[in-house]
Amino acid sequence: MDLRTWQTITTGSVDLPRYPVHAGIWFRLLRTLLDELTTAQGRYGRQLDDVRRVWEHCGHPFRAGLYSWQPFETLHWTVQQQLLEAAAAAMELIEAGSLTALGTSAHLFRPEPNPRISDGTRPGPPTATAQEKPTLDELWEQATDALEVCIAAAKVNPLVAKQLYDFARYGCRSEESVGSLRETFAELHIPLDFLSQTENQRPFA
Question: Terminus of the chain with fewer CB atoms < 10 Å: N or C?
Answer without folding.
Answer: C
